[in-house]
Amino acid sequence: VDDLTEIVLQAIDDVSEELREISLKIHDHPELGNEERFAHELLVNYLKKKGFKVTPSAYGLETAFVAEFQSKAGKGRVVSFNSEYDALPNIGHACGHNLIAISGVGAAIGLKAVLEKFEIEGTVKLFGTPAEENEWGKIHLIESGAYKDVDVSLMIHPNVFNGAFGRFIALNSVGVEYFGKPAHASGAPWEGVNALDAIVAAYNIIPEYTSGKFFVRGRTIEDLKALCPRVQKCFEGAAEATGAKLKTEWFKEIYDVKINSPLATRYEFHNSQKFGTKFPSEEQQSSISFGTTDQGNVTYVVPGIHPVFSIFESPSKVRNHTIEFAKQARTKVAHEKTLEATKSMALVGLDILIDDKFCKEVKKSFEA
User: Fold this and answer.
1) Are residues 47 and 105 in the same domain?
2) Among candidate residues 203, 206, 136, 196, the one with its CA nearest the CA of residue 172
3) Which superkingdom does the taxonomy of this entry point to (predicted)?
4) Which of 37, 175, 272, 306 is the most buried (most CB within 10 A)?
5) pLDDT digit string (tens) for 267-280?
6) Is pLDDT above 50 for 164?
């Protein structure tokens, strides 16, 4: 096992500078969701050079891809990683997806090195998953069957905290439109049906049409499913009270991350053993919400994790989705922290390939 571990770690170290170059190129060329053509081509070409079987524009998405390597000994268990590479409007890679991109690549290269050198059954897959920030690309991949033959789905996310047990909550969004009858606010307001009445509370105009987009959040998908019908009734009540006509369009549900305790514990073990990372207790972590991710949907299909890792040398008040975080995501420190988390994730993947008992624990936790 020690020999296998060292091969994984060394393989990732060997491509560190190449990964750094890719990360900087993606960072300096930010692209919005489903428009990540530069990042897609860059990653696809690199993975081909590294000996992976790569399918560009996979599953009907122009900027998705899947890279695969199977051991000559047989398919075995399938370990998958996710790379994200979309940016945010105006502030670029303020969520550090340039780092998520190279983490998936690095982990896949680490496992590939083991599968090539030893007679171990197993397969490594890397999914390029576009549009995490706005269009929830992983949901499309799930619906297209991308994860149907996968045993685990592993990915990591840059943050200011370290932990594998933090909460990512469920979310749904709804587009709301109200249709009324226009009138002059001071001349003859009684002739109008004010669509603005239905959507806000303070104004001095009477338009015939208003629209808005609302986000509904729940700690778990069960909470969200219970809440959304109540929110719908609020919209309907506003229409009834004002006389406006209502049109709503609910979008796809984003699930909470279903934490797989054996996977999360094993990730923290490798990270603390190899790099001395200190983690808050599981209870402390579970009290923190890190937002929403479409990786949550994946974790309801296959066992998975979505640990966060700090890209700072010391505690910081900087948060994701800020210009300051975007600047930090380009630093050498962020790269080094990313490689540590990448190696830890890759070692979890190695354990899946070689440890039958661990795999049973992971499956049992998922099915519980």
Assistant:
1) yes
2) 136
3) Eukaryota
4) 306
5) 999 999 999 999 99
6) yes
3-class DSSP state of 117: helix
CA distance 302 to 299: 5
What is residue 210's predicted lDDT score, i.e. its pLDDT?
Answer: 87
Please give the average per-residue pLDDT across 118-126, as a whole number.
96
Collapsed DSSP state (helix, strand, coil) of residue 252: coil
- What span, in angstroms and rounded, lies between the C-alpha atoms of 131 and 194? 37
Quote the DSSP letter at residue 255.
P
CB 262 within 8 A of CB 366: no
Question: How far apart are alpha carbons 336 and 12 in whole angstroms?
Answer: 12
Model pTM score: 0.92
Give yes or no for a contact between 346 and 266, defined as CB atoms under 8 angstroms apart: no
Token pair, residue 60, equals 């009907």
* Statement to judge: residues 275 and 136 lie in one domain: yes
b/e burial code for range 25-46 (CB count within 10 A of at least 16 → b): ebbebbbebbbbebbbebbbeb
